[in-house]
Amino acid sequence: MTVLADIGQLATCPRDGRDAGLIDHAALAWDASRVVWAGPEAELPDRFADAERQSAGGRLVIPGLVDCHTHLAFAGDRADEFVERIRGTPYLEVARRGGGILKTVRATRAASDDVLEAGARDRLGAMLRQGVTTVEAKTGYGLTTADELRVLRLYRRLGEEGPQRIVPTLLAAHVVPPEFAADRAGYVRLITDEIVPAVAAEGLAAFVDVFVEDSAFTADEARAVFAAARAHGLGAKLHADQLSDTGGAALAAEVGAASADHLECVSDDGIRALAERGVVAVSLPIATLVLGQEPLPARRLLDAGARVAVATDLNPGSAPSSSLGLALWLACTRQRMTPEEALRGATAEAARALRLDDGTGSLAPGAPADFAVLDAPSLDVWLSTWRAEPVARTVIAGETAWSTGARHEA
Ligand code: DI6
Ligand code: FE
């Protein structure tokens, strides 16, 4: 049994609440890998008198962050495209010329297993230093049965080795690969008849995602992919209404998706459908910033009763950053989410977007003892300033997975 005392502010992020469950002058207790108690330090029960005691030194403690949307494994870079966009070539024009996502597909197919793994490990390490303890990880740069399976097997290995928990998602429906340019239906059939069954047979993915967009897949193509996913017991996620309103949000509601992600261009009907069906709206403000778009209308979604998560969209093109802290700060500054709403978005709501119902993303008794200690006295102080490295310590399943050194221990 371990007690972390002298917490300046504790954010418990109750799963079904709407606030961050803030408690000043708090303590947190865990036994092996699960939280057993969280509350005001003055009310810590006597049964913890003999527990090992640690001090948070008056700092903020939050649930381990959950990044519920990343394209974790890829090879190469898109620096050329970055410069082209600065010079005025739009993202989709780069893609039409065979750059964009397809450039990363070529580099990823050509990369060795070691190179792919090293890149993914680097990114996970950077995320750990940001307090991220659970990471959703998509495929989508392989686009052949073998290449998609290769990345999912890498995710399985990374999850088994830890320290972070990995939630794998098949995104074979990211774009139509060049070898199927003249046979879109053939590629959709490859996904439904071969890739999804192979992935399900090995238990390699929790979700199937589809990029629903004029430049990617139509709603009907997505319906076929989701039908195959459902038949094999896999959940649904969508890249929806990112670059235009293609009815992606309504489609997410129709197929019972766990989340609809992006939504910069979502319609009022789409917002209503998400709220009614309990589909989590995932905001990806780094991609919005990079592509120079108007942000997802978080206030309208929240006011309509929808749940809003916040994630990085980490990928080499539209969101080349693994900083979930940056995404939270953008959610506050550009989307008018309060610090409490933003933090919930990267904890309890992100866990909901991944259908994790074991308490992940909150710090209630029974939840995994996954948390981060921030070098700030309160949530508002942390998120009102953008700092690259605000985290002092990251704990996963009760064990310190990373820390800045001895500063956090009493
Ligand atoms: N939307 C995105 O933001 C990423 N994929 C997608 O469907 C972009 C991926 C990339 O540009 O490589
Ligand atoms: Fe994405």
Structure description:
With 410 residues, the chain is an alpha/beta fold. It has two domains: 2-63 and 362-403, Urease, subunit C, domain 1 (Roll), CATH 2.30.40; 65-353, Metal-dependent hydrolases (TIM Barrel). The chain is 36% helix and 22% strand. It has 15 helices and 16 strands. The strands form two sheets. Strands 1, 2, 3, 4, 5, 14, 15 and 16 form an eight-stranded mixed β-sheet that branches. An eight-stranded parallel β-sheet has the order 6-7-8-9-10-11-12-13. It is globular and about 70 Å long. The model is unreliable at 406-410 (pLDDT under 50). It binds 3-[(4S)-2,5-dioxoimidazolidin-4-yl]propanoic acid and fe (iii) ion. The site of fe (iii) ion has 5 residues, from loops.
What would a concise description of this structure say?
The protein is of the alpha/beta class and 410 residues long. The chain is 36% helix and 22% strand.
Taken together, the total number of domains comes to 2
Largest sheet: 8 strands, mixed
Query: What portion of the residues fall into strands of 2 or more residues?
Result: 15-25%
The outline comes out as globular
Labels describing this entry:
single chain; 410 residues; alpha/beta; Urease, subunit C, domain 1; TIM Barrel; eight-stranded mixed β-sheet; globular; binds 3-[(4S)-2,5-dioxoimidazolidin-4-yl]propanoic acid; binds fe (iii) ion
